[in-house]
From TrEMBL:
<dbReference type="InterPro" id="IPR016455">
    <property type="entry name" value="XTH"/>
</dbReference>
<keyword id="KW-0052">Apoplast</keyword>
<dbReference type="GO" id="GO:0016762">
    <property type="term" value="F:xyloglucan:xyloglucosyl transferase activity"/>
</dbReference>
<feature type="active site" description="Proton donor">
    <location>
        <position position="133"/>
    </location>
</feature>
<keyword id="KW-0961">Cell wall biogenesis/degradation</keyword>
<dbReference type="Pfam" id="PF06955">
    <property type="entry name" value="XET_C"/>
</dbReference>
<dbReference type="InterPro" id="IPR013320">
    <property type="entry name" value="ConA-like_dom_sf"/>
</dbReference>
<comment type="similarity">
    <text>Belongs to the glycosyl hydrolase 16 family.</text>
</comment>
<feature type="active site" description="Nucleophile">
    <location>
        <position position="129"/>
    </location>
</feature>
<dbReference type="GO" id="GO:0042546">
    <property type="term" value="P:cell wall biogenesis"/>
</dbReference>
<keyword id="KW-0378">Hydrolase</keyword>
<feature type="compositionally biased region" description="Basic residues">
    <location>
        <begin position="338"/>
        <end position="353"/>
    </location>
</feature>
<dbReference type="InterPro" id="IPR044791">
    <property type="entry name" value="Beta-glucanase/XTH"/>
</dbReference>
<keyword id="KW-1015">Disulfide bond</keyword>
<keyword id="KW-0964">Secreted</keyword>
<feature type="region of interest" description="Disordered">
    <location>
        <begin position="337"/>
        <end position="359"/>
    </location>
</feature>
<dbReference type="GO" id="GO:0048046">
    <property type="term" value="C:apoplast"/>
</dbReference>
Length: 359
């Protein structure tokens, strides 16, 4: 995310060297998703929802950030003056990061809402990053979203996938989560795992391994986000508001400047790996297969133009391989023909050499 560099000077001071804790797990938050009964995963995650003051601070444009009276919900606004963003108050050495998010509704062309992890403010030249980015669309067409991964500054080797949703994310809040541990990375929508990246030793530094902060932002991406930048943000309909609640940050809190991470994190990481959200059940894999075959419309693993040899973490699934052309885009017979609004949405994006996907 190029905008990270622009705002990195606004981030908070680093946590004390001695602060090393694993956030406790005390409550259950359950999000539901309307998917076929045969693919429904029944897992619920036992997690603690934090207040804004316990978890985040302002990244930029405090005047466009609204906190609820109980401090459990934060609204991020985009208007003609600025977008807005928040950043976790701590860095984490692996963890589970989650929020229930409601998207802006209507006239969302050119808007990007992002929930992601990064350490670019500390490791500018070799940063790690895990992204969930939500892309607005022309009025009447559905939101789309993408996941991405960068490791050790590998911005030229982004691992991007793009999807559509089986629901309207502007009608209700839905939970979006990132699980990151030494073994694998899992992206969740509600309780449905939509993508897993297994740590392959041949990835070397491309697997994110340095402490990261968690960010949430809304911003103007008129130059690329909708129809290749042909559709811009229409500020006649400002402000555009996205709402974050059920804020979850679980992991070992560290000082990223420590040359050797404290061994106090060893037990915390083992505890993290043992959590229910750190593994996918057989039913969860069925749900993931259902989602990917029905709603994924670009995958770098099948983009032989960018990667004649698929990156080492790619697991080529025959049923997915059949869906895509050599560009990683859908073949005509697999073209997406509907969504929660039963519209056909097509867009393209070209953002330097980090993305070549189009829908």
């Amino acid at each position: 995310m190029d905008y990270l560099v622009q705002y990195s000077s606004l981030t908070r001071s680093l946590p004390p060297l001695s602060l090393l804790v694993l956030l406790s797990v005390t409550t259950t938050i359950t999000a539901t998703a309307t998917i076929p009964a045969e693919t429904t995963t029944t897992a619920t995650f036992n997690v603690t929802a934090l207040t804004f003051a316990e978890s985040y601070s302002t990244l930029f444009s405090e005047f466009n950030i609204q906190r609820s009276p109980d401090d459990k919900t934060v609204r991020l606004l985009l208007n003609r003056f600025s977008g807005s963003g928040i950043i976790s108050s701590d860095y984490f050495n692996y963890g589970f990061f989650s929020a229930s998010i409601k998207m802006p509704s209507e006239h969302t062309a050119g808007i990007v809402v992002a929930f992601y992890t990064s350490n670019v403010d500390t490791f500018e030249r070799n940063h790690d990053e895990l992204d969930i980015e939500f892309l607005g669309n022309t009025n009447g067409k559905p939101w789309r979203f993408q996941t991405n991964m960068y490791g050790n500054g590998s911005v030229s080797r982004g691992r991007e996938e793009r999807y559509r949703m089986w629901f309207d994310p502007s009608k209700d809040s839905h939970r979006y989560s990132i699980l990151w541990n030494p073994k694998h990375i899992i992206f969740y929508v509600d309780n449905v795992p939509i993508r897993e990246v297994i740590h392959n030793p041949f990835m070397r530094g491309d697997y994110p391994s340095k402490p990261m902060s968690i960010y949430a932002t809304i911003w103007d991406a008129s130059s690329w986000a909708t129809n290749g930048g042909r559709e811009k943000v229409n500020y006649q309909f400002e402000p555009f508001v996205t709402e974050f609640t059920d804020l979850v940050l679980e992991g070992c809190i560290v000082d990223p400047n420590e040359q050797i991470l404290s061994t106090n994190c060893t037990d915390s990481i083992e505890a993290l790996i043992a959590k229910d959200y750190s593994s996918i059940s057989s039913q969860g894999y069925k749900s993931m297969k259902w989602f990917r075959e029905k709603y994924m419309y670009y995958s770098y693993c099948y983009d032989n133009v960018r990667y004649p040899v698929p990156p080492p973490e790619c697991v080529i699934v025959p049923s997915e391989r059949e869906m895509f052309k050599t560009t990683g885009r859908l073949r005509e017979k697999f073209r997406y023909t509907g969504s929660h609004r039963h519209h056909r949405g097509r867009s393209s994006r070209r953002r330097s050499n980090r993305s070549v996907a189009s829908g």
